[in-house]
Structure formats: C-alpha cells, structure tokens
Model the fold of this input.
Amino acid sequence: MSVEDMQKEISIVIPVYNSHECVAEISRQIADAMGKNGISYEQIMVNDCSKDSSWDEIKKEAAKNPNLLGINLRKNGGQDSAILAGLNYASGKFVVIMDDDLQHSPYDIPKLYTEIQKGFDVVYADFESKKQKLWKNLGSWFNGKISEIALDKPKGIYLSPFKILSGDVVKEMCKFNNLFPYIDGLIFQVTRNITQIPIEHHKRELGKSNYNLIKSIKVFLRMLFGFSTIPLNIASYTGFFSAAVGLVLAIVYAVEYFMGKADVTGWTTIVVLLLLLGGLILVSLGIIGKYLGQMYLTVNKQPKFVVRETTK
Done:
C-alpha cells in the first residue's frame, strides 16, 4: 500500500489546555461521528502545558485509539501556537480545527467536510447563537470589524475557531516564518476562496472556560501587530495632526504678537501641550518598538513552539 493510500481523509487538530474532563468524551464523539460517516481520520491533540492532568488523559486515550496523536509542548505559547504545532503534524487531505470544550460538536464535522468538497479552501462554522458570555460576543464582533481592515476579511465571514481547511492551504500556512502566529491571519494570507455554513454552538457541559479578557486582548494584538501596519499608520497620522496643530498655533501666536495682542500666557497651556505631545511621542515609539521586537525575535529564529514528547 502506498503512502497516498494510507493518507487520512481528515486531520482533526485540537489545542488542549486544562481540559482533562473533556479529553475522553471528545475523543469518543469524534470516533463515533467519523465511524458513522465512514470518514478516515487522525485526531491530533496538542497539550499546551496544561496545569491539570490533560496530558495523562491524552496519553490514556492515545493508547486505546490508534488514530489519536498526542503532542506535549514544553511551554505555553497560546492557542494559536498550539494549533500551528498540530498543523505541522497534520497529514490529512483536509484539516479541521476545533476547541477542546465540546462547544464545537464533532458531529458537525461531516457538514463542514461536505461543504469544502464543493471546491472551497476553507469553510468556517457560522454560529448564529453563541453560548458564551456577553463580553466574548462583543469581543468577537469588534475583532471581526478590525479584521475587515487589517486582514481584508469579507464582511459576511465570521472568524469562527471551528473550521475545516484543505491540506494544501495548511501546507502553505506552515511555511510562514511568523513567531506570533494568528491562524485566521495566516489563512487570509494564503486564500480568499472561503465560505461558511450555519452550525450550532453548544453550551459547555464539562469543565470551565480557560479564556479570559487578557487572553482575548493578546489574541487581538497578535492579529493587529502580526498581520497589519495599522498601528504604525495611526502613529504617523497622529504625528502629522499634532504637527499641523502646532503650526496653526504658531501662526496664531505670531499674528497676535505683531498685532500687539500678545500677553504672558499661563503655564497650564504649556504643561498640557508638553504632556500631550510627549505622550504621543512615547506611544509612537512604543508601537515602533513592538514591531522591532517582533522582527528581532523572528530574525533570531526563536521557535514558535517546542515539542517535549508525542504519543507516537
């Protein structure tokens, strides 16, 4: 049998963090869903340095299921880095990315699989109703709006964490030398042949969410600084605006001086202007420093993820 004949139809990449309660159940549901639909698959679970017994559970399930590959990372690099690690090991014709909390049902994978076979490169799950906190919904909406500018995302596409990609797109994504990966950003760097289908978003039944506001902001900043120059443009426009205001004020004060209307102005105005301009300068330097720092770490080839061990 050739290597191509042995290739799985679908690789399912799941980043795992402090979700030991869900490992066995999600594995059972995936096996059941794929078996009922006659789809060959491999399941890749990436343990992102969980503080609980997630890795032990993954090893236990891998010992029972030959289709399951467990990857244990040496350090926590965030969800996108963990997903990228799994993508580098994925060998399926198509690759599904989903969360570990069962809010993305394995029984919906065949729907995504059917849709991508129509010739699309990526199919997102479009959740009409999301079973999550209000601030997460607002954050998703805001992130989507910024993505329309930063990533040139089509307005109607929801950047769902539950999606299926063609294997060719995944291979191209893995070529990018980006130390701070943002999966959706990588997707839009590779293709625009994208669609979405309605999928139900389920309530989390096991464990508790590991995502908080700080992590959401970090993901947003990865997208903003890793795949756009918007912050640099804002700094430049702000600098030009400040310079224009300063020029106008200089002309006004000069005219008043020659007309004999000049008087000794209070120190308040001077202090306010100094603080305002000084703050703008520091913010601009900080933005430039952020880009330079990312470039420095990337040029020095700092690894995007480090694998400690695998189950195979």
Observations:
- The CA atoms of residues 78 and 215 lie 8 Å apart.
